[in-house]
């Protein structure tokens, strides 16, 4: 897969130390790349520089195609309130040099429809809600048919139905072009992103496929749900409550309730050999064995927390 955007040693530092520091990144074409991180991590700074709206102190941004068009939809798009939604999108298309043709009118109609606002195309945007403005911002970006589409918090103001629709739209666009998005809605990111880049304090702390980043933040700890109480009633004496690893790799085995236990291993390799003996030692029918904190929110929190401790 070819790179649509390559970021080399990108640095932009503000008074007080905020910004980004020596960021290296290669963003694939025809894929969705999510930039995630806590508030102040540098996500918006990075996206603004990639979009050409801000300058870096050092480093460079290179496009796979030097003539590639880049479009950015900010978190809170703002438009002249007396314009209609159709006029906003027409103006955006006109900036590419296309206007007044049947093809232009079809492109505007398609962009409005894809973002779910064709029904309000003739309404003035001064009365739009924040969620409708987000949809309009995406339509204004998409109508330009950019090679690189950048979305800053694209679903932050949307209701559940709107988030689902935008998620489907992003996934579809990721099959046609390079999509870069930032979001705090990590559950949404997990469903739509092919790749996740974690920023913390302006630096990349994790970069890989969504599955790889999930795995990097996972701990080898499982919740065990039984059909009824274990006849042992307490932690099996052969295992004991652990504070340090034993030969089986068990770090801790705890009884949470009659039907729920948790077990943590020193590593996933240790769990591969040790999990089944632990289940057998409980001597009760197993309803469910679930890896704890297996979503992107938990992995992200653990990655950032470990960096703070380090």
Textual characterization of the structure:
The chain is built from nine helices and 13 strands. The chain folds into three domains: 1-68 and 147-207, P-loop containing nucleotide triphosphate hydrolases (Rossmann fold); 80-138; 221-292. The protein is α/β, with parallel strands linked by helices and 310 residues long. The two termini are 34 Å apart. Strands 5-6-7-3-8-9 form a six-stranded mixed β-sheet, sandwiched between helices. A four-stranded antiparallel β-sheet has the order 11-12-10-13, covered by helices on one side. The protein has helices at 43-50, 85-94, 102-114, 130-142, 160-173, 186-192, 210-216, 268-282, 296-309; strands spanning 3-13, 19-28, 31-36, 58-63, 70-73, 148-152, 178-182, 195-200, 203-209, 221-226, 250-255, 260-265, 286-291. Helix 3 (102-114) crosses helix 4.
């Amino acid at each position: 897969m070819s790179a649509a955007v390559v970021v080399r040693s990108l640095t932009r530092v503000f008074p007080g130390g905020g910004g980004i520091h020596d960021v290296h990144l290669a963003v694939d074409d025809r894929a969705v790349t999510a930039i995630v991180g806590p508030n102040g991590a540098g996500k918006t700074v990075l996206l603004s520089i990639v979009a050409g709206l801000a300058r870096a102190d050092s480093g460079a941004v290179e496009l796979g195609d030097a003539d590639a068009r880049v479009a950015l939809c900010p978190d809170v798009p703002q438009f002249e309130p007396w314009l209609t939604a159709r006029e906003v999108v027409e103006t955006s298309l006109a900036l590419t040099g296309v206007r007044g043709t049947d093809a232009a009118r079809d492109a505007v109609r398609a962009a409005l429809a894809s973002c779910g606002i064709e029904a309000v195309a003739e309404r003035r945007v001064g009365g739009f809600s924040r969620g409708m403005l987000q949809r309009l911002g995406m339509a204004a970006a998409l109508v330009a048919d950019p090679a690189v589409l950048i979305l800053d918090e694209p679903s932050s103001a949307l209701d559940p139905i709107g988030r689902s629709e935008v998620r489907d739209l992003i996934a579809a666009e990721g099959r046609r072009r390079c999509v870069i998005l930032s979001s705090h809605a990590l559950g949404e990111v997990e469903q739509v992103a092919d790749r996740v880049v974690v920023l913390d304090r302006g630096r990349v702390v994790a970069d890989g496929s969504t599955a790889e980043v999930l795995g990097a933040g996972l701990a080898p700890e499982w919740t065990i749900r039984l059909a009824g109480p274990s006849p042992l009633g307490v932690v099996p004496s052969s295992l004991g409550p652990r504070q340090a690893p034993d030969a089986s790799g068990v770090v801790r085995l705890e009884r949470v309730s009659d039907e729920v236990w948790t077990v943590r291993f020193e590593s996933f390799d240790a769990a591969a050999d040790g999990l089944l003996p632990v289940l057998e030692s409980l001597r009760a029918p197993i309803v469910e064995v679930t890896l704890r904190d297996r979503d992107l929110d938990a992995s992200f929190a653990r990655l950032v927390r470990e960096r703070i401790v380090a």
